[in-house]
Description:
By secondary structure, this protein is α/β, with parallel strands linked by helices. The chain has 11 helices and 14 strands.
Amino acid sequence: MTPSTTGCVLPVRPELADEVPYGAPQLDVPVLLNVNENPYPPSEEVVASIAAAVADAARGLNRYPDREFRTLRTALAAYLAREAGVTGLDADHLWAANGSNEVMLHLLQAFGGPGRTALSFAPTYSMYPEYARDTNTGWVAGRREEDFTLDPDAAVRLLREVRPAVVLLPSPNNPTGTALPLETVRTLLAAARTTGPDGPDGAPTASVVVVDEAYAEFRRAGTPSALTLLAEHPHLAVTRTMSKAFGMAGARLGYLAAAPALVDALRVVRLPYHLSAVTQAVALAALAHTDALMAQVASLREERDGLVAWLAAQGLQVVPSDANFVLFGTFEARHEVWQQLLDRGVLIREVGPPGWLRVSVGTPEETRTFCEALADVLRGPGEGREA
Ligand SMILES: *Cc1c(COP(=O)(O)O)cnc(C)c1O
């Protein structure tokens, strides 16, 4: 219970009483490689389009926005069709919200709740347990293997035991950068048809399987998207975001593709008019520049592969990455390494299993600064790298 200055006590939910707001440190440092943003700001051409679209939207701000935002949903479907080579997606299969974080919250509001459980496999995205807590959904984290792969048989056993309403599978995973083989996702989807909580008639429902593809555009050649599995799986949702590859983290636009019946369940729980007219205008304007915005993705992928090779050449352990970040280690005293990099003007992320650190892929200049700083730290006195 939280005492206030006037002496009464706020009825904060007991499970929130000792919680603090979550978030990576937002520090003013020359080289920011800590939250997997795209290091390239939008071009002046994209900025001009967005500004014009926002001006247009501003003329109608006396009205509530289009609650169903079908124009944006259609544009997102077209983008996905093109990016992943899938057919048959239209506005009815798409949903969007203020970041894929809010999309995830909608999923848990619609399918989680008291007496229900969300399941993921650690190490996994650190926000998931927060959405579970906020929606009164139980939270279970199974384990990935030592090399961060997922054993499909063990995962299926856990699904049968936990009977989760929602299974959260980031792929490429954050913080490890590893993508799940499509075969693993298929195996889990097959089992998940009957591993959900009991339905009103006592028969088991499905677990909703969420493949969080926030980093999908960075996947290496030959790694397919789970979007290709949508047509056969009514209990699959594939989430995406404009925050990472698309370079629009500040716009707050996340989305998902799923069967229309699943999308309809999300439409029930969203706040009315949750997606502002300005957000819709910005996202549509940015999507019209897909080619330009995606041009950097190829160079970021190359930059990533170079960074993986450089880290390995320093004798460090490096996890193969399909994302725009790399997990490396291991350090006896990772916090000291993190701090010494920060002292040299480079902010990375202290996240993941003990001993590991995560660095986002920046511009070539930023990557060079990071490499020089890390080489310096590794050389320096008192560094605690494991033998
Ligand atoms: C960054 C990230 C997201 C995206 O969050 P937004 O709310 O869309 O900015 C989603 N999932 C994972 C695993 C992420 O790392």
